[in-house]
Specification:
The structure holds 2 protein chains of 2 kinds. Chain A is mainly α. In chain A, 73% of the residues lie in helices and 3% in strands. Chain A starts with a helix and ends with a strand. The longest helix of chain B has 30 residues. The chains are: A mainly alpha, B alpha/beta.
Chain lengths: 600, 386
Amino acid sequence: MLDTLIAGLLRGNVYALGAVGISLVFGVMNVVNFAQFSFFGLGAMLSWFFVVKLGLPFWLALVAVLVVCGAIGLLINVTVVRPLAKFLPLAAMLSTYAISLILDNASQIAFTAQFRVFPDVLPTSNLHIGNMRFGTSDLVMLGTTALIMVVMTLFLKYGKVGRAIRATAQDQEAALQMGIPVGQVQHVSFVIASALGGLAGVFIALYVGVANPNSGLDVGLTAFVAATLGGLGSLVGAVIGGFVLGILEAFGIHFFGDTAREIIVFVILIVVLIVRPGGLLGKVPLMSTEPLTGTFLGKGRPIRIPRWVWLVAFVVAGVLVPLVANDYILTTGTQVIIYAIIAAGFTVTAGQAGVLALGQAGPIAIGAYASALLTLYLHLPFWVALPLAGIAAAVVASILASPIWGVKGHYISIATLGLGIAIVAVIQLVLPQGLYNIPVPEWFGTPLNSPQAYYLIDFGVLAVTLVVMWRLRSSHLGKVISSVGSDEVAALSSGVRGRNYKALAFAVSGFFAGIGGSLLAHQYTYIDPTIFTMLMSLLVVTIVIMGGVSLPYGAVIGAIVLIGAMELLRFTPELRIIVYGLVLILVVRFRPGGILVRNS
Amino acid sequence: MKRFLRSAAVVSVATLTAVGLAACASGSAASSGDSSAKSTVYFGVSAATTGQYAQYGEQFKEAFDLAVEQVNAKGGIDGHPVALKYEDSQSDPKQSVAVAQKFVGDDSISLVFGDYSSAASIPASPIYTAGKLLQYGFNNSNPDFTAKGTQYQWSTSITTSATYTWTADYIKKQGIKSVGVSYLNTADWGIPAFNAFKAEAKKVGLKITDAEGVLDTSDDYRPSLTKAVADKPEAFVHIGYGPDAAKIVTQLRAIGFDGTFYGGQDEQSFDGTKDAEGAINGAEFLSSNPAPEVQKFVKAFKKKYPQETEVTGFEAGAYDALNVAVAAAKIGGTSREDILAGFKKVKDVPSVVYGKITFDQSSRRVASPQLTPSILKDGKWVAYTG
């Protein structure tokens, strides 16, 4: 037991450092910063480079890592995050995702993707309590964290800039009116957060022993959960959240195994959020607005599309493309269309109900598995399994998500992110083997497995999806859902039960996600849990934001751009993801409301 | 300023949509490429050059390029030079199916190597089968890649079940009675491997005190490992890859377990890990193998890539794969059908991994592959005769 406790303390330490950075940026900028993940990997690789390749002493390398990470953080904030955060935190969040893509891949080009052995700078196993050995390095890490926390506390309490940071976190506009240079305060916070991220990365590498540019992702995600657990914006909360999560996780793994780790982490998170919707130490504001509210709906309006465009688009995509295009285009087209279906369905939740759910991979996976199992074991035809997969995804996802609708704002995003990961993790526990030989669609005995057939099936489903979404939007129900998203307080005062409508919107989105999952499964004919990743969830969100968050047909444009561009950029394989990230940033910069939404 | 931003926005949006749509156009241009240039034989490679598996994509590419250089220096395939077309799939099924379709549509391609992981290879298999294009999953150790595939799926990778059946036998022969086990809980690799190990261990009477499924994305295995060695097994087995084995062996020593570690992989991060010293596994390829074929390959590789300190099974597997494909093309011919016919006939191809490769025609895998017990000594794997 003591061993497990020590293991938990050590991992909690790293989470706490990362969580403080995330919470700090969130507090002063109201932006969830995905780029923080990249600083973990970057910090680890930079310190490896400084120590092994340049031969610097460890302490000097540590300082250099802090300086480099801080400088990169400043650059990012000045050029991308702050200009967007000023008027659209959601666009800023998307841009931090793009930045993290760029940073990870730049670091991969610089350091290669090889796992590197981290140098033995401090003894790692010279001391022991019971059987559990640990070393000076672990003590130094704990000590450093404690020191940083004390310094940070003093700085925030008594320092002039520190007080300005707190004031900004409390109320940005009031702080501005009191003469606090909010812009500079945000820069400082971003620099501190990035440097702390780098430091956490060095510690991860020291603790684990090997590192590569991607090795921060997992710890980053957990640190992110820790920050939410403690209460976003609360620094003490972040530290407590980090240690609580580290220790509970260690005991959870001890009893249920490492494979249950992600489930343990997110179950802890969801339970805490249900009991305390603002996290352990966060305050729930009396009137909290969803991150989307009053931003997209208020700041832009959709570009009006003449009727003939619809007709032309239908003829071109539905008739012309399948006739003239080659198989490669059609296969890429099926991927585009399937994601367009999933994303179009998602606009009810993200756009109309104003809930930025980040875990669509969950319902997609449920749909894929449901459809595969129904056709494999009950021998149902594809055409029956397809709608059943949608229903299964809607029902299961709704039941699982039902406790979280009392949670608000960014917390609901994190809770759904967790839900998505937990669903896939459960599938991995139950059916780890993957499913083979999933039957292809048939039409009276003729297998429909040519790229052309897949394309036409997917196109038909997309057309139905868009009509359903259009009818839904213009119906009374759709207007009620939109009212919840536009102004929840006003909707509540008019007797609309926001919670229920959010849940309904989520179920509708879940249905289309399940349909999409089913289409994927029958096209791949093989599925396993590694297909339904967090990146899949983020891709769905990105597509929706790209096209215009409440426009179902915008999702089609978003899918063409995001999946098509990835294919087109094949001419520069090395820089593919970096260019992709830059494109994403440019679009968000100039069209923060989405491609089909005009700024007003 | 505002007007400028607006026009900039319009331009960027227009460009992007054009980019997205042109993705299609470029595809058609590529596929209508010159099939008249018959002198060069093209093989496709579907692997990760970016993303989390890029490390392996790099290793494959280095070995492929070396093999192509050598083949062409010796006159190629009956005078036809060989060239490779690489496509990045990130080992992501969403992209590997598009890559497969691209290769199928490109008439100049007569065979495709890849993908790296089974989760990316298997979804692409139906497309290769429909396109009658041979998919050579040279790295797919998941038995189902070929077992559930068709006559178009071939592999020279030893299957995980074969490797870990051998491992259980070997450990038992070393006189060890009980082991603690950790295995990667992945559908395409770790679980079938563990099941094979467990079945063989039961058969030969090797006791598994505790088996913990772990994830290669985790960083901290101490809670799992404390549990796995709680009943004091004599030795420890990790069923996984190099980087996770490096983390596991380090943390296993940190919690005070001193028994032999069976596992790990010939891979830079594992080889360089201090606590990995003395690890034992069954190797397909050893760069210290004195066989002249192997030494010639290692020497040529280090000459071409002086920055690489290690030559591992990944490079060796890719190097072999290219030579097998060339040998098959020399027998059957260079078109898609002919090369498949060649795979059905090819025999005793010189190999740096197996010595000689002959396919078992029913499994489309290497017939009776052999493993060498090897131990990590001073950062190098050497044959072990203990």
